[in-house]
Structure formats: C-alpha cells, structure tokens
Design goal:
elongated, 21% strand, five-stranded mixed beta sheet, 33% helix, alpha+beta, single chain
Length: 135
Amino acid sequence: MAKTDQKTGEALGTGRRKSSVARVRIKPGSGNIVVNGKALKDYFQVAQDQRAVIDPLTKVGVADSVDMRITVSGGGTTGQSGACKMGIARALLNLDPAHFDILRDSGFLTRDSRMKERKKPGLHGARRGTQFSKR
C-alpha cells in the first residue's frame, strides 16, 4: 500500500515524535531538502538535529538523488527532527519497498512512544512535590 501523490508522483510519509508531527514528500532530484520553506541547515541549526534528519537517507544511500519537502509542527527542535526522521523513512519505504529491511533494522520505522507525563493535583509537576519546611 504505497502512498504516492497521484498528481506529482511524490512519495508521502508521516512521522511523529513527542508532540511533533512531520509530513514528508519525496521525489527524485538532486538532494535538496526544504523544511517549512527553509533550507535544512537554516531550520535545524544544531548538528545533531541535522544528522537525525539525514540519517535514513545516508543509510539507504539516496542522499544525493532525492528532493524533499517537509512540513513539521508542534514541539521543540529535537522532537521535530525525530518526527522528520521517521517521516523520511516511511516516505522512502513508499518510494521503494526494497529499503524495508535496512530501515527497520536501523530503527527508523519504530515510533518512539515516550510522551510527557501529566501533572498531578497537589504537585508542582508530574512528580515534583512541595518543598519541605521544618518550621
């Protein structure tokens, strides 16, 4: 069940991490990556986040042969880069199902289900209680 845009022929993928959601569109090209209308290095300024986004492409070996448009929203930069990584992996899978074993073994297709724990009544945060006062 490969998801592709019928009009443009782009492979689609959706990734999620923490409270971030990324929608990825991949088509054959020259390695151009655009995130929310900006270049990858302008949007993700931390090298760790840039590496996370590019990881699936380098693992499969198509970093210089596909163009990507990514729309990401919610959360912070780490969550957004993780969502992009998963979205790219899913889009690559839709582009060529032969990449499945590489992407799965590298852990790019597994959703990280850790979410922020809710605040409980009577506490300052999820677990942080009030400060003890002797007098």
